[in-house]
Amino acid sequence: MNENAISLSSVSKSFGAFQALKSIDLSVAKGERIVICGPSGSGKSTLIRCINQLETHEAGEILVNGIKVGTEPKQLEAIRTQVGMVFQSFNLFPHLTILENCTLAPIWVKKLSKAAAEAKAMQLLERVRIPDQAHKRPSQLSGGQQQRVAIARALCMEPSVMLFDEPTSALDPEMVKEVLDVMLELASEGMTMLVVTHEMGFARQAADRVIFMDQGNILESGPPTEFFANPRHERTRLFLSQIL
Ligand code: ADP
Ligand code: MG
């Protein structure tokens, strides 16, 4: 049986002549929490975006829970229901209320009734500690609150895997913790998580493995204690010295 939540083998992705991912191999076990770091332009977002097909890889194979990721409608639907994604810039629908943001996909993609979708959404808004904001619009919320809504919205689809792309990078410093706390809670509940972040405190606390990317390659990967205490590559050392 394939126990991997995600597996990439020899995955490559180019933009024109530029190769953003160079034959990436990566297996993520069910319940595993992985932090991805690395310099700007190293391919972190591209990697995450290929997993849920916001970008299409041109070579190699990606499996999510054993299902092949691809561009056919059935494949896309399977991936969209199983993989939750949280972006740096929240990406909430500005014209919808918080509650509507959370119920849209469950109603349209999962065919839940409005009442069932709303009940589930309220439960998750409570979990991210903002049930009182349910009837406001995103612009009325702080950045930290909006990002917690984005997490709740993704969880409303009951994904088996959550992808985060620099979820705290756009936040004012005082709001970073409230988002990281929600992510830590999720990690402690056994969610499979792939998190692009430079929050090394989060990596130390929550990650089973830290991955360092450079120029479209995974340069090294290891448990946080090892990764921070003893980075093997000069490039990793330099990067860590710049952000820590
Ligand atoms: P990171 O998230 O690590 O900063 P990205 O995955 O966003 O890096 O980008 C990797 C490289 O691919 C960068 O050089 C970036 O300019 C390039 N790239 C990313 N997306 C596109 C795109 N849609 N078109 C052209 N180049 C892109
Ligand atoms: Mg990025």
Uncertain runs with pLDDT below 50, 5 residues or more?
none
> Averaged pLDDT, please?
95
Order of helices and strands: EEEHEEHEHHHEHEHEEHH
User: Number of DSSP strands?
Assistant: 10
Number of helices: 9
Written account of the structure:
- It is a single chain.
- The chain is an alpha/beta fold.
- It contains nine helices and ten strands.
- The protein has a six-stranded mixed sheet, with helices on both faces. It has a four-stranded antiparallel sheet with strand order 2-1-4-5, covered by helices on one side.
- A hairpin with a 2-residue loop joins β1 and β2.
- α3 runs parallel beside α5, α4 packs across α5 and α5 packs parallel to α6.
- The mean pLDDT is 95.
- Adenosine-5'-diphosphate binds next to α1.
- It comes from Sphingorhabdus buctiana.
- This is Amino acid ABC transporter ATP-binding protein.
- InterPro entries: AAA+_ATPase (IPR003593), ABC_ATPase_HisP-typ (IPR030679), ABC_transporter-like_ATP-bd (IPR003439), ABC_transporter-like_CS (IPR017871), MetN_ABC_transporter-like (IPR050086), P-loop_NTPase (IPR027417).
- Belongs to the ABC transporter superfamily.
- Keywords: ATP-binding, Nucleotide-binding, Transport.
